[in-house]
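User: Can you help me understand a structure? I only have the sequence.
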Amino acid sequence: MSSSVILKVKCKPYLVSFLETLHGKSPISFPKNSNFNTILDVYLDKPPLAYIESDYGESFLEIRLPYFEFKDIRSYNYLSPSNERIFVKEIWKFFKITFRRETSQQILRGLEKQEALEIFIKKYNLSQDCWDMLDKDFQRYVKTRQKNKLFRNKKNSSVKDPVCPAHSEYSLAM
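Assistant: Let's start by predicting it. Here is the structure, written out as tokens:
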């Protein structure tokens, strides 16, 4: 159950579009057991005495705060700049995971990378300005996956298994 208290968070427009596609138009109400609600529960504080809400222009996300068990949202409805960055970083991580998973699934189904990117952009109502960012991020993701797959079977040189003296090179030479 959400309240009537609205929190504004400075956020990139593509992240706002992504979340609005998932959770409805702003102000967004996250599902009851959402990780985002848990993060808000931890990071919400009382606003400073002379606090004036910042004007973010068009790049902000409106969130309808849920009722928390131990915090009264009439008083605890402020994210400090550092807590706001942490919250937006968590949104960005969720975006990145969703993007990579869905794009990889489309490619595994036989689509070209460009088609998979186009489908993702349309699905989440993102602007075409995101194309380069998404393309570069997916290229880095693929390179990292290939590198991890290539070196997966190599053992860590700092890990030393115990050597049985009966089967050591010295005992075999005798």
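Now, to help you interpret it: The helical segments are 13-23, 35-43, 81-108, 113-123, 131-150, 169-173. The CA atoms of residues 3 and 66 lie 5 Å apart. Let me know which part you'd like to focus on.
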